[in-house]
Amino acid sequence: MNSPTFLEGKHALVTGASSGLGWQFALTLARAGAKVTLAARSTDKLETLAKEIEGFDGRALPVRMDVTDVASIRSAVAAAETELGPVDILVNNSGISALSPSEAISEEDFDAVMDTNAKGAFFVAQAVGQSMIKHGHGGKIINIASVASNRVLKQNIAYCMSKAAVKHMTAALADEWGRYNINVNGINPGYIVTGINRDYWETDHGKKLISRLPRRRVGDPEVLDGALLLLAGPGSDFMTGSMIDVDDGLTAKGF
């Protein structure tokens, strides 16, 4: 069983940490003893999160990172490692969606989703992977995909495509980087309540969707803590290229 601070001394970098799942991931890793770099495009909310982590004697570093800008990614990783040392754990979490019928989605929206969720995720993994290879100590890369990597979410074509790419990227990087003792795994969350979508679940459309889910409920971000800590810690040392579904049975549900 893991001790409460079993990640003591580890440096974790969390992208998309200014809200939602990223915020929760950062808190969870910090409570487990990790030093945490908080990365997002805007650092205002990151400062608030850093103060919350410091409130329980954790250590957190806010850094600006735009995952659609490779130079920004490299600069942020370099700044994080200058301050907190080499990254041991990456939570590759940044993501957006653009709801639209496939026949109507714009090139601008399609590119924004793919650039953030697929291209951005890869170049963050590349920057951290390069550092892990250079330092020779291995590490853990945790890619946050989605139930959409396994099944279709209606009128969300770019998001589905991007998350399928993240799933396949996880397997490809695991295959290539295993020789460097880098474990590359991922999590497929189901429907999770966040600040962005909280109001939606109270609408008629949201309630109708919940009624079609296997257990007629959506999850809070904390439901992902178990999978996150498994993949961040020594319990996953013999795991790489794996995707863990944390979706309350949605993938198992018949179409």
Model description:
It contains seven helices and seven strands; from the N terminus they run E-H-E-H-E-H-E-H-E-H-E-H-H-E. It is an alpha/beta fold. The protein has one domain: NAD(P)-binding Rossmann-like Domain (Rossmann fold), CATH 3.40.50. Strands 3-2-1-4-5-6-7 form a seven-stranded parallel sheet, sandwiched between helices. Strand 1 (11-15), helix 1 and strand 2 form a beta-alpha-beta unit. Helix 1 (20-31) packs across helix 7 (225-232). The radius of gyration is 17 Å and the shape is globular. The protein starts with 10 loop residues before the first strand and ends in a 9-residue tail after the last strand. The mean pLDDT is 96.
CATH superfamily: NAD(P)-binding Rossmann-like Domain
> Which structural category do the helix and sheet elements fall into?
alpha/beta
Strand proportion = 5-15%
Strand order in the largest sheet: 3-2-1-4-5-6-7
DSSP E strands, number:
7
CATH topology: Rossmann fold
Rounded to the nearest angstrom, the distance between the terminal CA atoms is: 37 Å
- What is the makeup of the main sheet? 7 strands, parallel
List low-pLDDT spans. Answer: none
CATH class: Alpha Beta
Which helices and strands, and how do they pair?
Blueprint: E1 11-15, H1 20-31, E2 35-40, H2 44-55, E3 60-64, H3 70-84, E4 89-92, H4 107-135, E5 139-144, H5 157-177, E6 182-189, H6 204-211, H7 225-232, E7 243-246
Parallel strand pairs: 1-2, 1-4, 2-3, 4-5, 5-6, 6-7
